[in-house]
Each structure stands twice: as structure tokens, then as C-alpha cells.
Amino acid sequence: MEQTALILIAVVLLLVVILVGFLTILIYKMFRENKSFSGQPSATPPGEAPHPDISKSEFHPAILERIKGLEKVKPKRADLFCPNHTEEPGETMCAICDKLYCKSCIKPFKSLHFCKEHLPLIMRHDWDEVITIKTSTHDPEQGVRLYDVKKEIFEHHDLPTYIETHYKINVDQDYIETYLVLYAQKELTERVREKIQDKV
Ligand SMILES: [Zn+2]
Ligand SMILES: [Zn+2]
User: Fold this and answer.
1) How far is the CA of 24 from the centre of ligand 2 (A)?
2) How many angstroms separate the alpha carbon of residue 100 from the centre of ligand 1?
């Protein structure tokens, strides 16, 4: 009977020793990972850190992970916010540059909205129709293409244009026709017409 009890105690002791050993290895591993983690920020070039004064090594690894995640989201976030006010959500799109601006940065003019940079451009120039496209809900593709081309000639050829939507009631068949009209500065209409040729 006494022998069985001794064997039992020996087995329990062995188990405890194994458990302690296992835990020690685990803690040691965690400690090493922590060390290599806190060493990382100093390894990155100083120019890359957006907040150079905050020492990231002071943060818990989980928080660091969260900060890294937030930094990845940043470019996307910037697109949603006003280019002039990073805390204000962009709500309305400028009809010339297609960027989203906050309420204080965009003004209505005619049926459209324009940013502070492009409102004077609209007011100081004469604008002429370049092309008119009839769209329908069954075939929206051509209209979508017009918006793509408009964006492209602004970004790549520096030609500002805007698109107005016109509605016409078709009395005979009793439905509303939708037209997209592309406008350009009077003196630039020929250049714009050349650029959009074959594309719309
Ligand atoms: Zn604009
Ligand atoms: Zn703004």
C-alpha cells in the first residue's frame, strides 16, 4: 500500500516538473517575441514613421498590431474625407475634379456643385456643349463611359469638363428621356472633342 502511494507521489511530482518546464519554455518564447517586436520600429527607416516622436516600443504588442492595422487603413480613409479638412467627411463631389468635399468647401452653382478651386473657373469662362448622350436605365453603359472619359481627360490631359443631366418628357410614348451633356470651356471644346472621339 505504502509503495503504491510513493509511486503515485513520484508520478505527480514528475508531472509537475514537466508542467513547470513547459511553462518556462512558453514564457521564455513570449519574452523573446516581445523583445524582437519592440526592436522592430527602430529597424525601419525614420522617414517612414508618420509620428516620429512616439516610441512604439512602449506599447503592448496587441496595441502595436492595432496601430499597424489603422495605418494600413489610412489611405482609404483619406479618400472619404475632405482634402482640405481631414476630420470632415467628404459629402459632395465637385463636378470638375470629382473629389469629395465637406460642406464648407463646396458651393452649388446651376444644378451642380463645385470646389473652391473650380467654382471661379466655371464662373469666369463660357462653357459650350461638346457631346450629348441619350441614356436609359436599360442601357446605362454609354453614360458610365462618358463619366470615365471625362475623368480621364481631366487627369491625363488637364482638360476640365462637367456633365449635366437633362430630362425631356416624351409626350408620345409618355416617359422621361434622360440626356447627359458634356460641357467644356468654349476655347477648349475642339480639343475635348478630339480626346473623346472614338471613346464615347
Ligand atoms: Zn474641383
Ligand atoms: Zn473641407
Assistant:
1) 56
2) 9
pTM score: 0.59
Local structure of residue 186 (DSSP, 8 states): G
Ligand nearest to the CA of 101: 2
Q: pLDDT by residue (tens digit) across 150-163?
A: 999 999 999 999 99
Collect all residues with Cβ–Cβ distance below 8 Å to 186 and sequence separation of at least 6: 125, 126, 127, 128
Cβ atoms of 90 and 81 closer than 8 Å? yes
Strands (E), 9-157: 92-93, 100-101, 106-109, 112-115, 127-135
CA of 71 to the centre of ligand 1 (A): 27
pLDDT, tens digit, 9 for 90 and up, residues 80-99: 899 999 999 999 999 999 99
Rg for the chain, CA atoms, rounded:
32
Rounded distance between C-alpha atoms, residue 147 and residue 64, angstroms: 42
- The ligand that comes nearest to the alpha carbon of residue 85 is 2
User: Which percentage of the chain shows pLDDT scores above 70?
Assistant: 72
Strands 127-135 and 175-185: antiparallel
Ligand showing the shortest atom-to-Cα distance for residue 161 = 1
Q: Where are the chain's structural domains?
A: 58-124, 126-200
pLDDT value at 35 more than 60: no
Q: Whole-angstrom Cα distance, residue 52 to residue 68?
A: 14
